Amino acid sequence: MKTAGSIFLRTHFPTPTKLLFLPLTNPKHSLSLIPISISFTRFSSTSPNPILYGPSLHKGTAPMLQRPQNDALLTLREDAFTRVFHLSALRVPSAHCSALETRLRGHLLNWPRVRNIARVPGDDLDPDLASLVTSGESGGGEEGHVSLQRRIYGQAEGDSDILSPVLYREKLARRFNTHGFMKFRNLAKISRPPKRKKKKKEDEEVKVERRTGKNDFATVEVVEEDDNGGGILGNLVEEEFGREKWRGSTRLLLLDERYAGCGVQDLPEAIKVAVLKEYAEKSANLTFELVRCKLTLFYDYWQMNEILEVLLPDGVVVPSAFETVGHIAHLNLREEHLPYKTLIAKVVLDKNKPKIQTVVNKIDSIHNEYRTMQLEVLAGNHSLVTTVVENGIRFQVDLATVYWSSRLATERQRLLSGFTRKDVVCDVFSGVGPLAISAAKIVKHVFANDLNPFAVEYLERNSVLNKLERKIEVFNMDGRRFIKAMYASDKAQSITQVVMNLPNEAAEFLDAFRGIYKDRPKDMECNLPTIHVYGFSKAQDPEFDFHERIRIALLEVAVNVEMRRVRLVAPGKWMLCASFVLPRSVAFANTAIVT
């Protein structure tokens, strides 16, 4: 039964049928409720920490996730992280979709990485043909269908209708044939439709569900019932009224989750009056439809910490950070994480592709003299040779044989900012050259040394790679021996900056600076270098503790040191940088007296 200014709403719910009436100024506008009939295992909303808003793996519907009990069964099933959320949506003409989204912004879904506007598969029309199949003042209806037929069969010449590209090419071919006065060598290319790129064939064994849209982590489907009352997932257009009511492309505006299961009478007045009624008065052909749909979020949608929170047992801290070295993710897993290290590595690899291709874990602290780390490859390819880009400079690194720390990039940049073009830098523990090669672009010359022969090999390779080999002189010797050799040569007077970045032992090498000028006149004018030495401290006052170690190594009480905390490497353990000008009394000290 219909009355003027009212719209008949039809429902298909298990509850007794109700007839709802919504007064509108235009009786041609209609709203319908598409039912949903589907059963899943639903997560309880009465959990200890209920998620009040937004998507979560603890909300929605999905098969129950069975957590494996031992390491042998630790396999990651991506389909177990699929979640289905039942929502309400407004189906609107695509031409008015953007404007309505702006007006309804506060009432839409607004979930991260999920668009509020969803497409309906198979519902799009070519914009050039949309005016021919729509009714009303746009010249559509029966006249539009006649015009469309005339264009298809090439009878549209002279009535201002544009020919299709194929018909236009045939028209040119008839006019300028092979016996004509004009040659069209490229006639076959005129208005030819562009070639479609061939899609890569997927493996037949792995059947992937086709997902709509540019992103593969979410799909939106409309749910409706068939005539027999069974729950199926069907198309949006219903046989009885859809084909006549909807002409042209449409879109779905996903409403906020609090409106899920609501009828038209339960929608806020901002939607019913302020927006829908306003647009209803503007156009006599504008139609809105309230539908029930389901939003499916797949494994690719969820963030790394959200998946690990579900995978790991209660009480286990979720690892949330790792160091990135080129294509390698470097983890420092705790003891409690080791039974699940394969799962953690798989999630880290999946959520950081294609940048991350290998996931490793440090299985032991650094004890050897070359400062190399004992690493275990957990996921991805087993290549530990990678290329790191820092401050626009490329470094080739092999984590199996050399040391690298991306976390010191900020500290290296701070140190470089204090260098000038007149400086000559002496890097005692250079490694593969992250500081030495970067400094070579700024300073006059660099002397770089390292005890590790593999690090020296990569240092030379990286200097050539960045075309700075003429400004870097490379040495392979012990740090104490390197310092004495440099200041025993004629290069001593030119050195203005000395960097000693070996936090475990660097302070112990400071005694090599005692008496570097002992064989020269004490009244001689000389340039005393600025020394930057790094170290660790677990004391309550780390600055005082490190300062005392420097005094003991130099056997000098009056040392004016500028101290800086670099970073907290472990609870209660600080990495510090001490910068000071080498005292003249230390440089000219007579070491023969010291026993």
Largest sheet: 7 strands, mixed
Major β-sheet strand ordering: 18-17-16-19-20-22-21
Number of helical regions? 14
User: How far apart lie the N and C ends?
Assistant: 112 Å
Could you characterize the architecture of this molecule?
The protein is of the alpha+beta class. Among the domains are: 76-122 and 247-302, Alpha-Beta Plaits, CATH 3.30.70; 303-383, GMP Synthetase, Chain A, domain 3 (2-Layer Sandwich), CATH 3.30.300; 405-588, Vaccinia Virus protein VP39 (Rossmann fold, 3-Layer(aba) Sandwich), CATH 3.40.50. It contains 14 helices and 22 strands. The strands form six sheets. It has a seven-stranded mixed β-sheet. Strands 4-8-3-9-5 form a five-stranded antiparallel β-sheet, with helices on one face. A four-stranded mixed β-sheet has the order 10-11-12-13. The chain is elongated and about 105 Å long. It starts with 7 loop residues before the first strand and ends in an 8-residue tail after the last helix. 28% of the residues are buried.
Q: What is the strand and helix layout of this fold?
A:
Layout: E1 8-9, E2 20-21, E3 83-93, H1 97-103, E4 117-119, H2 127-133, H3 141-152, H4 165-175, E5 218-222, E6 224-225, E7 231-232, H5 242-245, E8 250-254, H6 269-282, E9 289-297, H7 304-311, E10 323-325, E11 328-331, H8 341-351, E12 358-364, E13 374-380, E14 385-390, E15 393-398, H9 409-416, E16 424-427, H10 436-440, E17 445-449, H11 453-465, E18 472-475, H12 479-488, E19 497-500, E20 530-537, H13 542-554, E21 562-570, E22 573-581, H14 584-587
Parallel strand pairs: 11-12, 16-17, 16-19, 17-18, 19-20
Antiparallel strand pairs: 1-2, 3-8, 3-9, 4-8, 5-9, 6-7, 10-11, 12-13, 14-15, 20-22, 21-22
